[in-house]
Amino acid sequence: MKIGIDQISFHTTQYFVDMAELAQARHEDPNKYLIGIGQKKMAVIPPTQDSVTLAANAAAKILTPENRQQIDTIIFASESGIDQSKSGAVYLQSLLDLPRQVRAFEVKQACYSATAALQLARGYIALHPDKKVLITASDIARYGIGNAGEPTQGGGAVAMIISKDPRILAIEEDSTVLTENIMDFWRPNYATEAKVDGHYSGHMYVDFFNEVFDAYRAQSGMTLTNFDALAFHLPYTKMGLKALRSILPQTDELTQQRLSANFEDSRQYNQIVGNLYTGSLYLSLLSLLENTKTLTAGDRIGLFSYGSGAVSEFYSGILQADFKQALIPTQHQKMFAARQQVTIPTYEKIFNQQLPVDGSTVELDLSQDPAQYVLAGITADQRQYRKQY
To answer: Which of 239, 306, 329, 373 could bond 290 through an S-S bridge, CB–CB 3.0 to 4.6 Å?
Structure first.
């Protein structure tokens, strides 16, 4: 039985910063951001959006009357959770008006957790082939104003529906994983911005990729020639490019050219959004599928998932017949085209507009947020969500 990604969608906010302007404001050479980390734009997240609303806005794009009745599990993958006890998935069930007869929970392991959710969903569908699983990978990457991590911020959410007989990508059986307790990135409960050792994390990312890919080759008997494309976790797109370049010498020139060209398609969306944490790999996959002019049904895509701290996995999937028809590129292109560029002072003001941490009541101005699902404020320690249309 084939099991995999039947539908996939993405949402980010209406604001972005131009990376060249950010570099100039920080007295850096723009090419440090444009080429050095491979980014063009960075999503700016207003206080009226959080990990729950981003996930709801992404999921709403792929929900139909038919699949609503088949979804009996909601998995909320995030490292930007809003509550230490209650899962974001429970809020989604209510906001999206999904049936009450569902299980709903949250998973966390830095940027890896959406892959954990996908593998859990695969096992569940194998036992319950008449059901579907909704996964959201939703995050807001925050490092602070003016520090080294600032240009690798961003935010948004990817939503996926996992089912049997998937229309987009059937996940193959082979998979290799690796876990090691390292301190390359973390965020203590008391911190609103992440702690990161950027150079160390970059090196560990490439090392983990090589180790799990070598293990995958040994397990499956495949080589790079068996892959038509590779999709990477892309907190910034140069990181994935470094990993790809580390293995290209293993294969022939034609395969190198194919993988390199498909990597460029796979990073187009990430370059104009920034870091999605849990959603970064799956935004890269979505970018590849919606921008490719060469991939066809039957092609194999390798996927590398990495979550600092650190857990990684390499697995693969086969593109299905008419996969393009199951995608919604027009919706995503309209969303990107409608975004507004903000000045650096405006971005900094938005960044510093944090919700109170003492339970104070606050009412947010929704007039500038065009999203379907928004955060309206806080009352009696409870976040107030609203559907605007």
So the answer is: 329
What is 171-321's CATH number? 3.40.47.10
Delimiting residues of CATH 3.40.47.10 domain(s) in the chain = 3-169+327-387, 171-321
Catalytic residue among 11, 106, 150, 233: 233
HSE on the CB side for 223, CA within 13 Å? 8
Task: Look at residue 128 and give its three-state secondary structure.
Answer: coil
Q: Are the beta carbons of 182 and 228 closer than 8 angstroms? A: no
DSSP 3-state of 160: strand
Q: Tell me, what's the pLDDT at 223?
A: 96
Calpha distance 17→188 (Å, rounded): 27
Q: Is 111 a catalytic residue?
A: yes
Residue with tokens 């990457």: 141
pTM: 0.98
The 10s digit of each residue's pLDDT in 200-259 is 999 999 999 999 999 999 999 999 999 999 999 999 999 999 999 999 999 999 999 999
Nearest to 230 by CA among 181, 178, 291, 299: 299
What superfamily does domain 3-169+327-387 belong to in CATH? Thiolase/Chalcone synthase (3.40.47.10)
Which one of the listed residues 11, 106, 111, 313 is annotated catalytic? Answer: 111
Per DSSP, 62 falls in state T
pLDDT over 90 at 359, yes or no: no
The closest alpha carbon to 15, from 333, 284, 351, 288, belongs to 351
For residue 21, the Cα-to-chain-centroid distance in whole angstroms is: 25
Q: How many CB atoms lie within 10 A of CB 288?
A: 22
> Is 66 exposed, middle or buried (CB count within 10 Å of its CB: 0-12, 13-18, 19+)?
exposed
Q: Which residues contact 192 (CB under 8 A, 6 or more apart)?
A: 142, 354
